[in-house]
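Exercise 7. Given the encoded structure of a 560-residue chain, write a plausible sequence.
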């Protein structure tokens, strides 16, 4: 065959991996996580398709350079690579962990990567062997096999084009312009340290005896319930007071309904009527749906110019696509964390500085804490990365490539205590109410209850107070209204101050799980149900219930 003939024969074998890695893979990643991303389909789809076409033509041109008899096994290797990649994505990725931003535990896979690699070698060897043994039939096979698999994947691409996905045409975003400014008179500042449970503190205190030093003015509640284990729906439930609706048509619909409910509108109206500006600083809108859901409630939701680093975004999508299609022995080199996608979207001079604990701390030290003289009272929620994996927070609050959970706990408290010292320097510590809590605990540490510390305005102690009252994130709104001196209508329920040590209270925790007895959700294969645990006393009873198994299993709504 001459070069032109080889080029024609190279087109289909090369097209197969190009569609997998360059088109279908990135699109499936986008549509499967569209509600979590800050960019839209229009920000990358045309460059993605252009890059795929270019890779197809260049790859075919390079393969066609292989001369004579060597062209047949070379094209067979390319075809075998495409077939193995297709099989990997369809059948062999069962050992991948939930894509929640945490690093994959490669050490738990045992011999599976070796078995997976052996399957790849068999497919590649079989392709080459067939090309040498079936000389007359090979040209037909080399065209028919990729044509069939390409057609299947193109059908999937077309179906994705009709998949509903959130619009990002609006420029409303959570602005970080005033993240390190506090009100001039009264502040209610809530630090939400992601994934920190009571059980995190004991080993951390043993390693770092000064962990809670300087917090003597706080009362520590040791029997708090977070209602939902994982940030979604915990954060939106806490801030809206609306229980998660397991019968909702989708996550997005529940988020929209919760944030536009009468209860939510009434709560933020009352906080504003009490003279409080309301601001939320959180690393990802995923937990709230869209910025439009927050508009009208939080004053730092503004129209902000948005720019997307298209080249970097394409690189991340292609890298994560390769992570899905390549064998396990290659996957560690292509792992992508969720925070990397947040960095490809820029909001000039207004970016929220909490993609990680260390980002927040670096910005705090760089900008300092200052007074916003135009605001007299403020209710502020600072949601930090906390002790969510991967652990990259050193005990002094700076970045470290591989930390442990105890180091991360110490680093989080170092950061918060530095913030409090700066508040004292401004003369606003005494008049401020400070809450340090978590959106949820950490099941791996048998810690399903979150931490909860509170210092009310004017509160001082010689040593930290302990309180075993059975409180809950259900109490959040009523507690805020009480602290703000606003009217607490019955619709907001009880505050933490309505509960006393020794009282019992029926509380229910919902834990997201993957249960193979239930259908896989549209748009999500990491979990599909919530396990329900009801308890009446404390965290010890909850841990025992968790070990025994759920009281009920509720199927989770789908995602768009």
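Solution.
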């Amino acid at each position: 065959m001459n070069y032109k003939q080889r080029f024609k024969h190279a087109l289909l074998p090369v097209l197969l991996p190009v569609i997998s890695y360059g088109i279908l893979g990135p699109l499936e990643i986008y549509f499967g996580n569209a509600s979590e991303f800050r960019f839209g389909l229009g920000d990358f789809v045309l460059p993605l398709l252009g890059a795929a076409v270019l890779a197809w033509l260049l790859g075919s041109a390079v393969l066609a350079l292989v001369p004579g008899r060597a062209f047949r096994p070379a094209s067979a290797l390319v075809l075998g690579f495409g077939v193995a990649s297709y099989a990997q994505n369809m059948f062999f990725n069962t050992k991948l962990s939930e894509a929640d931003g945490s690093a994959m535990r490669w050490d738990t896979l045992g011999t599976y990567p070796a078995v997976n690699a052996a399957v790849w070698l068999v497919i590649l060897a079989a392709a080459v062997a067939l090309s040498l043994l079936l000389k007359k039939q090979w040209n037909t096979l080399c065209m028919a096999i990729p044509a069939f698999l390409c057609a299947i994947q193109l059908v999937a691409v077309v179906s994705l084009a009709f998949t509903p996905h959130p619009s990002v045409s609006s420029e409303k975003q959570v602005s970080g312009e005033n993240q390190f400014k506090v009100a001039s008179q009264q502040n209610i500042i809530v630090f939400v340290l992601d994934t920190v449970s009571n059980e995190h503190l004991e080993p951390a205190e043993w390693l770092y005896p000064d962990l809670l030093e300087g917090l003597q003015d706080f009362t520590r509640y040791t029997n708090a319930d977070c209602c939902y284990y994982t940030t979604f729906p915990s954060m939106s439930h806490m801030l809206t007071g609306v229980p998660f609706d397991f019968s909702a048509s989708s996550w997005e619909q529940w988020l929209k309904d919760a944030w536009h409910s009468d209860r939510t509108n009434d709560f933020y109206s009352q906080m504003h009527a009490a003279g409080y500006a309301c601001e939320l600083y959180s690393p990802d809108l995923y937990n709230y749906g869209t910025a439009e859901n927050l508009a009208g409630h939080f004053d730092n939701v503004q129209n902000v110019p948005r720019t997307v680093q298209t080249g970097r975004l394409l690189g991340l999508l292609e890298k994560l696509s390769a992570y899905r299609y390549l064998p396990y022995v290659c996957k560690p080199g292509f792992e992508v964390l969720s925070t990397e996608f947040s960095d490809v979207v820029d909001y000039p001079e207004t970016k929220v500085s909490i993609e990680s604990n260390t980002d927040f701390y670096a910005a705090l030290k760089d900008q300092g804490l200052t007074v916003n003289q135009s605001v007299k009272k403020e209710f502020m929620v600072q949601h930090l990365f906390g002790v969510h994996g991967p652990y990259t927070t050193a005990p002094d609050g700076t970045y470290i490539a591989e930390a442990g959970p105890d180091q991360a706990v110490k680093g989080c408290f170092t950061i918060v205590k530095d913030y409090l010292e700066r508040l004292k320097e401004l003369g606003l510590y005494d008049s401020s109410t400070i809450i340090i809590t978590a959106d949820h605990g950490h099941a791996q540490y048998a810690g399903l209850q979150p931490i909860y510390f509170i210092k009310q305005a004017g509160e001082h102690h010689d040593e930290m107070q302990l309180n075993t009252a059975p409180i809950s994130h259900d109490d959040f709104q009523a507690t805020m209204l009480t602290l703000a001196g606003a009217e607490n209508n019955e619709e907001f329920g009880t505050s933490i101050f309505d509960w006393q040590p020794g009282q019992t209270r029926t509380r229910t925790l919902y834990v997201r799980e993957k249960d193979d007895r239930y259908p896989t959700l549209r748009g999500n294969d990491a979990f599909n149900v919530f396990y329900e645990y009801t308890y009446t006393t404390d965290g010890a009873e909850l841990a025992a219930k968790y070990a025994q198994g759920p009281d009920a299993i509720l199927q989770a709504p789908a995602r768009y």
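Remark. The chain is about 45% helix and 15% strand. Students should compare their own answers with the one above.
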